[in-house]
Every structure is written in C-alpha cells, then in structure tokens.
Amino acid sequence: xxxxxxxxxxxxxxxxxxxxxxxxxxxxxxxxxxxxxxxxxxxxxxxxxxxxxxxxxxxxxxxxxxxxxxxxxxxxxxxxxxxxxxxxxxxxxxxxxxxxxxxxxxxxxxxxxxxxxxxxxxxxxxxxxxxxxxxxxxxxxxxxxxxxxxxxxxxxxxxxxxxxxxxxxxxxxxxxxxxxxxxxxxxxxxxxxxxxxxxxxxxxxxxxxxxxxxxxxxxxxxxxxxxxxxxxxxxxxxxxxxxxxxxxxxxxxxxxxxxxxxxxxx
Amino acid sequence: xxxxxxxxxxxxxxxxxxxxxxxxxxxxxxxxxxxxxxxxxxxxxxxxxxxxxxxxxxxxxxxxxxxxxxxxxxxxxxxxxxxxxxxxxxxxxxxxxxxxxxxxxxxxxxxxxxxxxxxxxxxxxxxxxxxxxxxxxxxxxxxxxxxxxxxxxxxxxxxxxxxxxxxxxxxxxxxxxxxxxxxxxxxxxxxxxxxxxxxxxxxxxxxxxxxxxxxxxxxxxxxxxxxxxxxxxxxxxxxxxxxxxxxxxxxxxxxxxxxxxxxxxxxxxxxxxxxxxxxxxxxxxxxxxxxxxxxxxxxxxxxxxxxxxxxxxxxxxxxxxxxxxxxxxxxxxxxxxxxxxxxxxxxxxxxxxx
Lengths: 266, 354
Ligand SMILES: Nc1ncnc2c1ncn2[C@@H]1O[C@H](COP(=O)(O)OP(=O)(O)OP(=O)(O)O)[C@@H](O)[C@H]1O
Ligand SMILES: [Mg+2]
Prior knowledge:
heterodimer; B: alpha+beta; six-stranded mixed sheet; 8 helices; binds adenosine-5'-triphosphate
C-alpha cells in the first residue's frame, strides 16, 4: 500500500507538471506553439543557452577530470581545502554564485572600472553568463569522478609507467578508459544543470531580450508578460531536455553500475 | 638456483631512507643482488617491503641513498626508462583491456621507431601466454580470471618488455596454499629459464626460504639480516629473525667462561656467545630427549598428540609450558604423559638480554 501510494505521489509530482507544461503549450494549437518557438527572441534564447553550455560544460569537464585526478592519484598539502572548494557551489545559493561575479566585474565592482576603460563587458553579457554557469556546475563532473578514481587507486597508472608509457599515454590509455562512463554521466548532469540554471544566470544576465536571455530566463520573461503559451512552449523545450537527460542518465547508470559490478569482482 | 647466479653485481642499494611525512618507512637500507639472482624480501606487514620495491621501480623517490643497476645511477632515471618489470601486490591489471592487450601494452606504448610490428607483437604475446600457461584466455578480461591466472597475466605483462630486473610484490598473497605451492614451483622454473634478476617480496617465511637464492629480512624499515636461506634459518641474527623464521622456544640463561647454563643444566656455550645474562632460543623440533637421570633440562611431559607425520609433545620446563615436536610416527623412548624426562636443545642460539 505504502509503496503504491508513494509511487502514485511520485508520479503525480513528476508527471503532473509535465502534463501541464505540454497541455498549456498546446492550449492554442500546434500552429501557435510552433510560432512561439520560432519567434526571434525564442530562437536567440535557445542559441544562447546552447552557446553557454557549449563553453562551460567542456571547461568544467576538463576542470573536473583534472581536480579528481589530482585528488585521487596524488598526496599533497591542501587536498581537503580543494575538496571543500569543489563542494562549495553545492552549498551556497546560486544567487550568490551569480552575485560574486557582479561584485567582481559589475560597474560598481572591483574590476568594473578597469573593464569599462578597456571597453570589455562581462556582466549583462555572454562572459558573465558563462562564468555564472561555470561556477554553479563546477562540482558535477569532479564529484562523480572522485569516489570512483579513489576506489580504483593509482596502481594501474603506476603499472603503465613501469611498462614504459609516458604520462600522457598513461592518462589517455589507462586513466580515461577507466572513468569514461562516470565522466559521461557527470557531463550529462553538468549539461542539464548548465542549460536549466536560473538563479545565478538571472543575476548576471540583465534580461536583455534576444541578447542575454537564456531559455529559463526567457520563460520567466514571457510568463511575466502573461504570454502563457509562449512561456510554456519554451518550457516544453526544457522539459524535453529533462526527459532526454533522464533517459540517458538511466542508460548510463546501468552502464556504470554494470562496470562497477565487474570491477568489484577483482 | 645458486648455480644460476654469477658473481657480477647487478643491483646495489646503498643507505636508502624514505619517510612518509614523519613516518620512516625505510631506514638506511643497503643490499646488493648479483646478476640473475633471486632475492627475497621478507618481513612482517608494514616493514617497508613494498616501499623498497617502489623505490627500485622509480615510483617512489628515496630521501637519501643510492640505487645502482648494472653500474648505472638508477635514481636519475625516470620510471619508464628503468625497464623494470613490476608485478603489483594487487596485480594492477588494466581492467578495461583483454589479457592479450594487457600483455602487449608495454610493446604498444613504445616510440614509433622502436615499436614492433603488429605481427611481431602478436607473436610475442602468444609466446608469453604459452610461457605463463594461459593459452586460450587472451580475449578474457581481468575480471573473468581467477586470482592465479591474474597473477600470471601480470607476470607476462611485466616480462613482455624484456625487463632488466623483475620486482614481484607478494605475487601469491591472495591465493590459497595449494595454488601458492604450485605457482612457487612454476615461478622457480620460469626464473631458471629467463634468468632475470628478481626481487621478490613476501611475508611468508616458508616461501622465501624455499624460493630464494638469498633472503633479506626487514623489520620496521630496517634490514636486519641478509643471507642464504640456510644461513638465516640456522644463524638468525636477532631473536626477531629467529621468531619470524619458524617456531621458537625461549628460556633465560647465563654464559660464563665458555659455559652456557640454563636452569640446572650446563653445557658448552655456542661460539661467539655473548657473556652474562642471555636469552636462549631453540626450535621445538631440534631437541633430544633423555631419561630423567640423564643430562639436559628437567621436564615433565604433560601431553602428547599426533600431528600429521609428527608428534607434538607438551612439556613443562621450569614452570614454563612448551610445545616440542618429534619427527616420525613413534614417540621417542621414555616419553609418555606424566613422565619426567630430560631435554637437550641441539642447536641453542643465545642472544644478549635486550
Ligand atoms: N604513501 C604512503 N603514505 C604514508 N605512509 C605510507 C605510504 N606508503 C606506505 N606507508 C607506510 O610505510 C610503511 C611500510 O609500508 P609498505 O607498504 O612498504 O609495507 P609492506 O612491508 O609492503 O607491508 P605489507 O606486507 O602489508 O604489504 C607502513 O607503515 C605504511 O603505512
Ligand atoms: Mg606490501
């Protein structure tokens, strides 16, 4: 009974909003839905979202791998500080993650005047969006990799070195294949968050239509304008992204746990 | 295997010390291995065996000391240039590669100019698989192998680079006694065929004494004794070595004027025995039994038990209960529970009281 009840509650909590999103998006028919998605501001928002994700996800994947590698394969001072730093974005509000950049690069910020002099714009522009997204999504890849790499230890790398492999070869042929599924999983989560992030991005965006509105911000703007169909149409893209992520995530989890079970037999 | 070794020094280790933080894992260790020698590093857990191997492989840099191999300064060479084949304590096979790919790894990562052709690599892998008796398993992944098979894959992988020296870190550690004995014999054969200078880590004294040309005994990061198996077994340098290499009985004694006195029994002291109060060690199976009116330590037999081909004889000597052993299915004459006898340690070792 309890299980059925909670399953129903879960289904309601997750499925209901999805149904509502698509129901309202198509409230005035498919034509109006398509029109809402193809208006210039919507297309700009989609493009901007893709651009921000395309920059920040690979960067964070690289940072994440580097940090996890350093933490799990080497002994050094300040390791626990680094671990705490990686977790920081999880524990602070995204709004603060955005505000940090405003304080640094905003017109009244520390580096604001200098940026003005050089005619460079960070806040209310793409660089600010990327920075905010980077900060918020920083932990995803590293958090996914650290436990796995710690469990695997550094013996295989040591073996590769004794067999004559260079550091780079060892990384590419031993380290990377051992973490590829977990890495993919982390990238997926990172990407989902990068595309869906609202709080941090909202602070640095300035909400300039067609210029600095990412999809989530676009949804909010339309909703505030009482353009319910437009808002839900845009939201349906995010919802679709969420569903795709979920499916891929499930597939990967299956892969990762299969790989772990194989590894445990060692 | 002594026949196999010649007298040229291959490996020279001088004054190696290594600290992890404040913890000294190796303290001033010096030892040499001759060309083609099979050297065992023996010591209890945490004595620094793995650390020493890692220093030799170049995976750990010592704080002080010198390592030379074939006259070359080994510490100046990075890991990948040492051409040392290492078998890790937990094998460290590449889990995402097949057996064949594991073995071929050292060949495929060579510089293009030195890399063998695909066909050559295939031949070499096939040859190594035959050497370690794993034909037919080349397409398996490490997780699909038994412990003994993994161990042999790790060995084949290390041999593939034609190493100048082999380092084996407790290769039989995780295996059961039967498999251990089989692999031990096999490893000795393999060493005879390949003749690579080998340093072999174990904490199993029987394995070390059985396999090695010479045994180095480590304790708390220090080299305690180095010698041929029979030397270290018969002349342990310290009580620790005596204890570590087999069963030990110990009693207090006194050496004066070339005589050794234990309780009420006096005999000739061993050569070079320290003067004064000593600790006397002997093996429980290296004793002679005599009737109660003969010479030796007065003892009372408290129990007798058959143990495989040997007999265990429990005795009380000077209020101390000792488990002695006699070989063969029958009891020595005059020995039975409740009787008084005399016991003469045949090869007592004496050490100064710590
Ligand atoms: N990376 C390290 N950092 C800190 N201490 C270490 C490190 N590696 C080894 N030690 C310590 O050095 C000592 C020697 O370790 P080592 O692994 O050489 O022992 P061992 O003789 O191989 O033991 P075992 O038989 O259990 O494998 C141990 O006390 C261990 O805790
Ligand atoms: Mg060890």
